Amino acid sequence: MSDEKPAPQVDVTKAWAATQGQQGAAKKLRIYAALCWVVAIGTEILAIVWLKQGKFNQGSLVLPIALLVVIAVFAIGGNLMWKNSNKYDPASRADGFRFFVQNQLGAFITLIAFLPLIILIFLDKDMDPKNKKILGGIAAALGVVAFATAPELHPHSVEQNTVDMNTCASQIKSGQPTTACSPEVAQQAQAIARDSAVVAAATKSAANPNGIDTVYWIASEKAGEKASTEHVFHLCSNVSTLRGKQVKNGSVTQAYAENATRITKQIPMEQGQCGFAAPAAAAAAAVPAAAAASAN
Fold it and tell me: Can you tell me the distance from the alpha carbon of 100 to that of 87, in angstroms, rounded to the nearest whole number?
């Protein structure tokens, strides 16, 4: 048997990290947001060119107003998608510059998409004064509406998600209502709490009646980096799957952080190889059911 220390109360949520699924969802939203912003700024450039060419000086204001609406719609769409992406994969407050830019980028893009055009409209000497006031007023109003959708007043952060996941996992484990289990943290909190309980049940012994919160997994291909593919974690380093491999060990939380997010399906076999007692099958089976019940 390995010489791990007992873990009477497992802290399953020491640090939150976005899953590959969350990172993928955030990446798609950011790509779509960037495309929306490109359309908004591209339309603004077109409007500026036509303004300089005098196309808005005579006739109806339908065309310039239509261009302003297009700018606003795509700017707002980009802002909303970018803000939603930050829920899936937020920045850390420890990196102050990135945290500020990532959360307030939409505000800067919206200013770029509207402010130059608004200034040029009011400075245009050839446009009819009445039309200038109407068009400038509409541009300013749409700019304000678009800008209002951009700033992150209560931005998500890795640190806040960690706090929420700690609370969420504790509520799951104690059977309390899961008030802290937001969509961003609930899935991981439930999975980590479930797997930690299964590992603890499988590693109970006379020396460690509460089980052990230590698992083993194949180290990442690049030292110090998260594995690019999902790995399985095991009960000890002596299992046949890990022989001859570079192995890391740590809590279930640490395993998840390094993309070892799948618990072994060979718990009875590994208990024999690791020198642990027979599994408490009923207790292990009850954990997923309890987690699922808490999530509803």
Answer: 15
Residue 144 has pLDDT above 90, yes or no: yes
Which residues have CB under 8 Å from 176's CB, separation 6+?
A: 170, 294
CA distances from 149 to 146, 240, 289, 296 (A): 6, 55, 40, 32
Q: What is the dihedral of CA 121, 124, 128, 130, to 10 degrees?
A: 40
Q: Where are the domains of the chain?
A: 20-148, 158-295
Single out the residue of 198, 237, 196, 197 nearest to residue 216, CA to CA: 237
Task: Note the pLDDT tens digit of each residue in 45-82.
Answer: 999 999 999 888 877 899 999 999 999 999 999 999 99
Per-residue pLDDT band for 34 (boundaries 50, 70, 90) equals: very high
The candidate with the shortest Cα–Cα distance to 214, out of 240, 233, 187, is 233
Which DSSP string do the residues of the chain spell out, in sequence order? ---PPP-SS----SS----HHHHHHHHHHHHHHHHHHHHHHHHHHHHHHHHHTTTTSSS-SHHHHHHHHHHHHHHHHHHHHHHHHHHHSPPPTTSHHHHHHHHHHHHHHHHHHHHHHHHHHHH-SSS-HHHHHHHHHHHHHHHHHHHHTS--SS---HHHHHHHHHHHHHHHHHT---TT--HHHHHHHHHHHHHHHHHHHHT--SS-TT----EEEEPPSSTTS--SS--EEES-TTSGGGTTS-EEEE-HHHHHHTT--EE-S-HHHHHHHHT-----HHHHHHHHHHHHHHH-
